[in-house]
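Illustration 12: LysR substrate-binding domain-containing protein.
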Amino acid sequence: MDLPLLDIDVIRSFVAIAESGGFSRAAVTVHRTPSALSMQIKRLEEMLDQPLFIREARQVRLTPQGEALLGYARRLLKLNEETVGHFLKPALTGQVRLGSPDDVGTRILPRVLARFARTHPAVQVDVLAGRSVDLVQRLNDGDLDMTLVTVGNDGLEPTLGEVVHSEPLVWAGRDGGLAVQRRPLPLSLANQGCAWRRVALAALDHAGIDYRIAYSSEHCAGQEAAMLADLAVAPFPQSLVRPPLRRLDQEAALPELGHYQIALVRGTAGPAHDALAEQVKAAFRDYR
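Figure caption equivalent — predicted structure in token form:
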């Protein structure tokens, strides 16, 4: 049986409604009337034979089926943009020099670089990994065009750049390990100046938990190695806690660490730089 084809305009309207939480607000975004959007969603629900929104007095919420569709819808819109842009947008050329902390590089940059190479194959992207404070200095010296930084690191202005990502910072350690039970608590931390380190030590001091800094490393891989060997526990982004590591704070009575943020700081402006910046921000939106 031939399956029906989704209308990209309807998909765009669906995403606008889901992200804004209402038909009236979405209507402004897509330049249609609320009644026209309502008809579009009604036809979409009939096509898929699923309810997509729960309609309340002042807002709408996604149903579980709507939440499932939202991921597909966002990917469809991006693929449509890539496809049309490949033929209609003028080819960008040049060079963009991007800085990134190593923990960001392992999570986000592979998909950013792969997609950017497909959409803008004539642009050369040079990536430099390092500490946030050093990357900002390289940006100020003119050696980088833009850089990602961890917000809150020593030597950085708290309002520097545009925040593009936020996620919980949690305690992590080896699944089934004993390090979390030891006192003083053995820690694997980044070097002095790291926001994760400062937040973790302040939280332990406030909670009155004895600790010792067992291992220090500039790179996440060094912190992770100590955890994998069950030699220490560490403050780690929740998204990086993967087996055989596990989150510890909820069961070990360790203090909450709050959220940490990543910001994009730009120097040089230009079409190629704008295009890469937009894809970096889009990659973080997808990562959430």
